[in-house]
Amino acid sequence: MLNAETYVTTGKGIGGRIRTKYEDFYVEEIPESFPSGTGPNTWLFIDKIGRNTLDVVLDIARELHINRKRTGFAGMKDKAAHTRQWLCVSNVEPEELQNLEEKLRGVKILKVIPNEKKLRIGQLVGNKFRILIRETEDPDADAQTSSEILSELSLKGVPNYYGWQRFGKNRPNTHKVGMALVHNDIKGAVDAYIGNPYPEEAEHIKVPRALYDEGKFQEAYESMPAGMRYEKMMLRELMKQGRKRGEFDEKAYKIALESLPKPLKRMFVHAYQSYLFNKAVSERSKLGIDRYVEGDIIIDNEEHIVHEIDPKTIDDDIKEFRVHPTAPLYGTKVPLAGGELGEMEENVLQDEGITREDFECPKTPRLGSHGLRRAMRFKIWDTSATATPEGVLVEFSIPKGCYATAVLREIMKEDVY
């Protein structure tokens, strides 16, 4: 995990491999509520393999000839997995979706139910996972080790690191786009997203990126495969603005950036915040994630800051998961911890050559962030580990916004994607 260095469990890792097949990594949302059966908005419970959520909702919008803003989902699900989740299409009758499944690649529609309300980002409790870890040395012994580590995590909590999905594995640059925006470098942000090929990328991806870097925009656009959907979206708008304006000025690059879907645009600065958060969590975890340290900013399970700390009860409250130590998602208004912890958090910013005020992003203010304090650990429940002929099958549930790979990292003692 990018910028994550600290483990909190003592057991030796079992190693192994994950995601050998998409089906090895199963995720199912735990919803806040279920559709009622009546209302103007239609919810779809889908089963998908090898597709990310945003691509699916864009495909649905295209097939229904509607604006993508009429679609909704509670959480973004990864491409490299077998996942089940609810989607929503507003002001559409279920009958209008009868033939939709056959037009969607890698997607099955399991339920179609109307509801009064739309489905919005964040409206889920969490996710349950069933993950096969292949190629471990001794599945029986490794299942026992995994069970012990899961038990330890159930007591302590799991370091709340952001996983590689936040940044990209073969192309970990999402946070670099965000870094450019925080530095008010709009052209740099667009260049980082479209160009700058990475060695791990496939050759047919590296070629158009290199052409873009050479300023050969039309050639780059024409050589981009379908999978570079968002790069094409941005480059098409950039070329349009260049023709219209007679030059590729900052306004052209800004309009090109604005052509991306809102959830994707918001991810850039969030990814940079996540990159810095991982560093802060890694440093703070060395002092113990299930205990109070002088200067800690504590939040409760509603994510409200606890202003009055009782030294007699605070450690018990932390161990019972009633409250949690935090680390900063840096932004213009986020408070930093006190004492030496605050100095540690300030050092993370100094190492990047930025201040909290830089997250205002004055040239792209809608993408700026006030920041917040985020729990530096999360609770895990319904855990199990079982030996199978293929390896070790682990199961667990975690809250929304948390990464299963943070759990797997502790089990395997390896960087995992």
Automatic annotation (TrEMBL):
GO molecular function, one term: RNA binding
Gene Ontology BP annotations: tRNA pseudouridine synthesis
Reactions mediated catalytically: uridine(13) in tRNA = pseudouridine(13) in tRNA
InterPro entries xrefs: PsdUridine_synth_cat_dom_sf, PsdUridine_synth_TruD, PsdUridine_synth_TruD_insert, TruD_catalytic
Active site feature: 78
Gene3D superfamilies in the record: 1.10.1510.30, 3.30.70.3160, TruD, catalytic domain (3.30.2350.20)
Regions that span the bilayer: none
Domain of life: Archaea
Start and end residues of each TRUD domain: 157-378
Keywords: Isomerase, tRNA processing
EC number from the UniProt entry: 5.4.99.27
The family this protein is said to belong to: Belongs to the pseudouridine synthase TruD family.
NCBIfam families associated with the record: tRNA_TruD_broad (TIGR00094)
Known function: Could be responsible for synthesis of pseudouridine from uracil-13 in transfer RNAs.
Name the record gives this protein: Probable tRNA pseudouridine synthase D
Phylogenetic classification of the source organism: Archaea, Methanobacteriati, Methanobacteriota, Methanomada group, Methanobacteria
